[in-house]
Amino acid sequence: MYRRNSINHDGYDFRNVNVFVVSLIPLVGAIFFSMMGPKEEVRMQVLLIIFIMNSALITPMTMAMLIAEEKEKNTLRTLMLSTVSPVEFLVGKAIVTWLLVGITNIGIFLIIQAPNKFLPMYIVIAFFISTIMILIGAIIGILSKNVMSSGTNSMLILFYSYSRCSQ
Predict the structure, then answer these.
(1) CA dihedral sign, ordered 153, 8, 26, 42
(2) Which of 113, 109, 114, 151 is closest to 126 using CA atoms?
């Protein structure tokens, strides 16, 4: 129980303002773009754009920031000296990111008011893409020295992946 609380402590309480604000960006975009028109075709295109933005930009950046923050505060060294294995640490941060991204993806779907028949397929696709992007974000977070450099490092890679996804 103690290990789980120590791993997920920073993720569950939203003292990390960066992660909270970054997770609000797709929701604000969904609210803004949902006013574009009532047609189902337009709503599905808006859903795709906001989903790609959330998956390619926000998800890995969140994971990278969480890991880089632990490195910057030197709590990562303390965790590594404890009984927490590196895999448990990464899984703990990934679970926090999955929950945040999952809630955001469902919120995007509901705000856009896409047809409910697409919801199960949307959730499955979002889960698999989020898994890949969380792994990319973990690599960026591990290679970054602090939170500021994780944002800079992730932008170069993530804008490239965003441009490839939206073609």
Answers:
(1) positive
(2) 109
The upper half-sphere exposure of residue 139, i.e. CA atoms within 13 Å in the direction of its Cβ, equals: 7
What is the tens place of the pLDDT at every residue in 20-34? 888 888 999 888 888
Among residues 55, 53, 54, 42, the alpha carbon closest in space to that of 113 is found at 42
Q: Which residue has the tokens 């990464």?
A: 90
Nearest CA to 129 out of 24, 55, 69, 23 is that of 55
SS3 breakdown of the chain: % helix, strand, coil, rounded to 5? 85, 0, 15
Rounded distance, CA 59 to CA 42, Å? 24
pLDDT at 126: 92
- Please give the model's pTM, rounded to 2 decimal places: 0.81
Residue 120, SS3 per DSSP:
helix
Grade residue 107 by pLDDT with cuts at 50, 70 and 90. very high
For the stretch 134-145, pLDDT in tens is 999 999 988 888
Measured from the Cβ of residue 3, the count of other Cβ atoms closer than 10 Å reads 15
CA dist 108 and 157 (Å) reads 24
Nearby residues of 107 by Cβ (< 8 Å), 6 or more positions away: 27, 30
